[in-house]
Amino acid sequence: MARAAVPGGLMGRLDWRVARLAGHRDETPTARTLLLDVPGWPGHLAGQHVDVRLTAQDGYRAERPYSLAAPSGGDRVELTVQRIGDGEVSPFLTEEMRIGDPFELRGPIGGWFVWRPADPAPVLLIAGGSGIVPLRAMLRAREEVGSRAPFRLIYSVRTPEDVYYADELRTPRPGVDVRLVYTRKAPDGARTAPGRLGLAELNSHGWPAEFAPNCFVCGPTGFVETVADLLLALGHDARRVRTERFGPA
Ligand SMILES: Cc1cc2nc3c(=O)[nH]c(=O)nc-3n(C[C@H](O)[C@H](O)[C@H](O)COP(=O)(O)OP(=O)(O)OC[C@H]3O[C@@H](n4cnc5c(N)ncnc54)[C@H](O)[C@@H]3O)c2cc1C
């Protein structure tokens, strides 16, 4: 039975829609942004995600969640997918899908891990690897609506080659601080040796807990749990620490 999609869908049941690949852009050697046309897309908030469903010729189906990588803009939806070597869905999305190819998608999904443009509170974004995707949508949404909420992004990546949206993040924007933390290889001439994100970086590049920032932490499960614990240890209010786990550490 057909049901109406819930715009901004928080809890309601959502219909599958047909999306078509309209274009793509490689972010890193293993991550690709997919530009999709989704007729009738109801719009979404930065931080929400969709479910993608692929159906093989023999009827076998695979379904995975992917964050919306950009703010709402008509029927156009952007996802950025990290290819997992032995994965079922991500290699297809990043390597095999051709322009015009259809597949199914439903959403938007999620009402907690979202940034609302009317909220003037400071924002602390902390990403590990592909966890940057929904946080990039929040940065883009801030710019689109002309918000003056101060944003800080701490983005942990293995090497300089693993940075998504590198040009965008390099472009200075008033009210937005971006700090990259390299865990395996730092760029030539970097003052800090590679290492894991810890209390020192959160202290130096995050907001003090007294500023009551909204914190959004996204990435592999182990990364998210470690960072959330550090934020709580620094005195951040648990109700303001929002997390999204993408999968194994
Ligand atoms: C809410 C939500 C939003 C997400 N948004 C994004 C997004 O924007 N971009 C994106 O690339 N992914 C995102 N993911 C992860 C995505 O849903 C898939 O899990 C991922 O693409 C792997 O799927 P696969 O079919 O290729 O691998 P699978 O066949 O499911 O798994 C293959 C192997 O890889 C491991 N694995 C699975 N997921 C990951 C992972 N994320 N990192 C490392 N190893 C993994 C599995 O344990 C298994 O060993 C999101 C997940 C959630 C829950």
From TrEMBL:
InterPro entries: Cbr1-like_FAD-bd_dom, FAD-bd_FR_type, FNR_nucleotide-bd, MRET, OxRdtase_FAD/NAD-bd, Riboflavin_synthase-like_b-brl. PANTHER family: NADH OXIDOREDUCTASE HCR, PROTEIN RFBI. Keywords: 2Fe-2S, Iron, Iron-sulfur, Metal-binding. GO terms for molecular function: 2 iron, 2 sulfur cluster binding; oxidoreductase activity. It holds the Pfam family FAD_binding_6. The lineage of its organism: Bacteria, Bacillati, Actinomycetota, Actinomycetes, Pseudonocardiales. This is Oxidoreductase. The keyword Metal-binding applies. Residues 14-115 form the FAD-binding FR-type domain. The keyword Transcription does not apply. Its cofactor is FAD.
